[in-house]
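Task 17 of the worksheet. Students: predict the tertiary structure of the chain below and write it out as structure tokens. Keep your answer in the requested format; marks are given for formatting as well as content.
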Amino acid sequence: MPARSWLPIPRTSHFSLANIPFGIITTASSPYPRPAIAIGEHALDLAVFSSNNGFSELSSVRDHLSVFSQPTLNAFAALGRPIHREVRRYLQSILAEDTPHPQILKDHQGLRRQSLFPLKDVETHLPLKIGDYTDFYAGRNHAYNVGVLFRGPNNALQPNYTHLPVGYHGRASSVVVSGTPIRRPWGQILENPASDSNNPTFTPCRRLDIELELGAFVCRSNKMGEPIPIAHAEESIFGVVLLNDWSARDIQAWEYVPLGPFNAKNFGTTISAWVVLADALEPFMGKGLKNETEPQAYLREKRAENVYNINLEVHLTTKSGTSTIITRTNAQNLLFSFPQMLAHHSITGCPMQVGDLLGSGTISGTEAGTQGSMLEQCANGQSTLKLNGGEERKFLEDEDVVTITGWAGDSEGGLVGFGECSGRIEAAIDM
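Model answer:
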């Protein structure tokens, strides 16, 4: 039988006792950002909990209690996976129906009133201060689908693709938390890419798209010149979030040669607010896509089950309020894992820092309705996506709301989910 909590938790909640994700909140009573965990339909304020002897029965964090009063999770993340593991298990024991320490919270009505807030009454913020953001391209199905659209099936994947985790450096300053509006960007596009004319038009993006991804936060730094060995890379992963790397496809088509995407990607990346710790996802490890290429030694992991079995959905809600699930897929549709991405990123001696964010790349299946971008679903505008209520889309329109959800496990054992990763498209500014 799965553990039960004395706090009522709906069976459909992403934030079961098996989860305990961490985030940053503010409330009407306290405008100062501070750490919290999500549990059921509530947030437990860890600053209040900590300052009222909430961690008195966990000796390993007594010298580190200040991390729970910081405006980001960076200090907590920097304590390392063993401490994350102990804190999560301790909080599970405090919230368990048969808690060995009922005096700390279960029977402490005053502290419950001060520290437990309905999720609907808290505002969430970026969970970590992000120093650098790197977006990978590990979704082979997506890479192949897009390659077929632009280069044909014989040249869909570049020769290097199966040998290394392809990636590029993104823009950390435009990573935003779920619920933040996304402004349609301006840029240069070619009106007719098939023509011989190379005179671009300056215009608001006309082919605004999504990219369904996971994001992983780094919790351990390395010195410049010293790579992170693949055997140690897993211990450098703090936790995982949902990620939508919004994409301006027409701007990208004109600008990306020879150095890759630039303005087409730098205007907004949305992540979910609650970081699901790597340990919470450990029971849901699975095999990724089979790689016919034997990886170099520095990328070889000891275990075959190195990616997450996470169910993913994308909901598109139009101005009319009608919502449609446009994508259902699974995070196992990746060719490389986050530890492999981290090992490759640092193999040159690149110094990674606590709070750095890694994007997985777009996660797509092989069948209709499993693709993680509208570019794939609508064949770069050659077909339309049929929505509930009779509406259609080729790409995103103003006031469309895109919401990504993801979860592992089931309601019997307790869902380990992420909540939502959502953003609404705002019209381009008047230029």
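Marker's comment: The chain is about 15% helix and 25% strand. The longest helix spans residues 81-95.
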